[in-house]
Structure formats: C-alpha cells, structure tokens
Design a protein that fits this description.
Elements lengths: L2 E6 L6 H10 L7 E6 L4 H12 L2 E8 L2 E7 L3
Parallel strand pairs: 1-2
Antiparallel strand pairs: 2-4, 3-4
Helix pairs in contact: 1-2
Length: 75
C-alpha cells in the first residue's frame, strides 16, 4: 500500500473529479490518494464519484480555502 497526493488546486468543476479519476486509474487497490482542491464543489463531487466507483473516502476536511480529500483505492 502506497500513499499519493494530487494537486487539483485552481481547477474548476469537473476537472478535480477528472484528475482524481485519472490518477486513481494509475494506482493499485489499497493505495491512498490525498487530493487538494480549491473548488468547494469537490467536497461533494469527489465523494460521490468514489461511491459510484467503489472507492472509500477516508477523510474530508477544509483548510482555509482548500478542500482536502483522502481516498482509498478499492477493487
């Protein structure tokens, strides 16, 4: 299991989700990906994408104007 990060700051919807999807496709089950965004919609959009695609949201938080979402790649 490895940990990865993705900088999706200054990207507007739907790009944070697309960037997340593209990065997850390169990872293996059990890996984690922490995505940092400035688009507040990502707080809902990325977890919704995870539910649809069977990935686990480990944590969502806000720090200033950033949204930080950590997901575990599944199956």
């Amino acid at each position: 299991m490895s940990e990865y990060t993705l900088d999706a700051r200054n990207s507007l919807c739907p790009m944070p989700v697309i960037k997340t999807q593209n990065r997850v496709n390169e990872l293996h089950p059990g890996d984690t990906l922490t995505v940092t965004c400035t688009d507040p919609g990502a707080l809902n959009d990325i977890p919704a994408w995870c539910r649809i695609n069977g990935h686990e949201v480990i944590e969502t938080r806000e720090a200033g104007n950033e949204v930080i979402i950590t997901i575990r790649v599944c199956g």
